[in-house]
Amino acid sequence: MDTEAHLTAGYCAATGTYSSRHPPLTTAAAASFPDYLFPRLLTFPPDSPAFVDASTGATLSFPDLRTLSLKAAAALSALGLRRGHVALLLAPSSLHFPVVSLGVLSLGAVLSTANPLLTPRELADQARDSEPFLALTTAELAPKLGSLLAASRVVLVDQLLAGLAGHDAWAAGASGIGRDDPALLFYSSGTTGRSKGVVSTHGNVIAAAALLQHVWRRRGGGDAEDVYGCVLPMFHMFGFSAFVLGTPAIGATAVLVPGRFSVDRLMAAMEEHRVTRLLAVPPMVVQMAKKLAAGEPSPTSSARRLCLRDVVSSGAPLQRDHMARFASCFPRVSLVQCYGLTETTGIVTMCDLSPLPHGNGNGDGVESSNEPPPASISIGRLVPSTEARIVDAESGESLPPNRVGELWIRGPTVMQGYLRRGEATAAALVTDGGGRRWLRTGDLCSVDSRGLVHVVDRIKELIKYKAYQVAPAELEDVLAAHPDIHDAAVAPDQVS
Q1: How many CB atoms sit inside 10 A of residue 146's CB?
Q2: CATH superfamily of 3-26+209-226+276-480
Q3: What torsion do the CA atoms of 317, 436, 399, 15 make, to the nearest 10 degrees?
Q4: What pTM was computed for the model?
Q5: What's the superkingdom here (predicted)?
């Protein structure tokens, strides 16, 4: 490949490194994420909602988000929560979730979320590892905690917030937090193996929010003008980074559609609240297309009533046929992908959200009526201040564009490490000869000549058949192309 093509891909042959083509990230000199966010909340229109609950119509303004978060910090401090303590948050998405989260972070305490669907045993495993000082939960979920904590350390979120009137706001910046202090302890299976506690610092969180501000900008458009549909769980890093870190920092409204996912409720909420951008996972995208395809008399009549312009999908690769079905039902909506891990505090690649000349497709122009489709659908380009390597699993060699290997990531959002898992941390975070630290993602990827990243599959999910290594995602793509198959998953037959 010639030098010009290498430059277009952001690839340096001398170092084997791909660099973001975006300008470097710049962030304000804030010591903690609350110090970064709270001044911003005072610059947005006071009557503009930061959050809307689509099920009740309740709203939370930007100034109220700041005030209630600082009052929550004061209330939690009165309960003994201090800098360095872990606070376990076991709750579904709600208007309360960001308030409590920001209250914990304001004290310099570490926020550890838990999936409400965890069994008591799974929750006990997580709690034994994280050793929370207290748990914040709901009356419905509290029984799952059993005897993990003393009753005095189990705090019902509703009761905590109901008593905020009796507390003065915590003094912003009074906790002496630094950027290297831990902020989040989210649990993930990691690049391999059982669930581990991922430690993200305040510096990681600030960078994650600043990155979202950059990549969510639309050419020719602003930030706050977009209304975001929130169906992602806030206890998961994708939802947390988007709606606790991201939308408040840019002054955009997030419309929550709480509870178990329902495509009917989502479509109704998007129409009523004029949602322009939806963040989703592939099964949601599939259900949206299926819903409209079954509509009468015209599948596009409902789509035309929507203000929706973008759907950003992550969590798993979209299959090509799913994108085609979505495009036929939502011809005016751009469906793109992003990619990130819990270990990267959110996204590290993102497709361009520019309006598309051909309607639906990949926002970086991968799809075109004049070009054959690529082998896989792009997950976008590297976000600002982020570098990547594509590494051959056997030789350890850094690979040039259009070669497949393990994706390694380096940037300001990469985790501090796994809690009390020295060996796992050493396996996931490797240092090169120049002293630079890289995260091994465990994903097989390639970078094309335009700098677009493509996911092939997870390394550990490759199926070995005779002399071949078969990527399940490729077989799933073939199966999903059948009109009677809505989704597909491929796993090896361990018996035969």
Answers
A1: 12
A2: ANL, N-terminal domain (3.40.50.12780)
A3: 140
A4: 0.88
A5: Eukaryota
Peptide bond into 297 cis (omega under 30): yes
Of 273, 218, 306, give the one whose Cα is nearest residue 288.
306
Six-digit token pair at 339?
Answer: 């990619």
pLDDT tens readout for residues 237-276: 999 999 999 999 999 999 999 999 999 999 999 999 999 9
Alpha helices of 294-352 — where are they, by DSSP H? 299-305, 320-329
pLDDT in tens, 340-370: 999 999 999 999 875 444 334 444 544 433 3
Burial tier of 188 (Cβ tally within 10 Å: 0-12, 13-18, 19+): middle
DSSP annotation string for 395-415: T--B--TT--EEEEEESTTS-
C-alpha separations of 102 from 67, 72, 109, 125, 329 in Å: 11, 8, 10, 25, 39
Tally Cβ neighbours within 10 Å of residue 153: 18
The tens digit of pLDDT for each residue in 267-302 reads 999 999 999 999 999 999 999 998 888 774 455 556
Q: Render 436-482 in DSSP notation, one character per residue.
A: -EEEEEEEEEEE-TTS-EEEEEEGGGPEEETTEEE-HHHHHHHHHTS
What is the strand order of the sheet 49-53 is part of?
A: 59-61, 49-53, 253-256, 227-230, 277-280, 310-313, 334-341, 346-350, 381-382
Strands 334-341 and 227-230: unpaired
Measured between alpha carbons, how far is 34 from 126 in angstroms, rounded to an integer?
26
Residue 151 in tokens:
């009753």
Q: Where are the alpha helices (DSSP H) in 114-224?
A: 120-130, 157-162, 202-215
Residue written as token pair 């950059």: 214
Q: Where are the domains of the chain?
A: 3-26+209-226+276-480
End-to-end Cα spacing for the chain: 42
Report the relative pairing of strands 59-61 and 134-137 from DSSP bridges: unpaired
Integer Cα distance of 289 and 328 in angstroms: 8
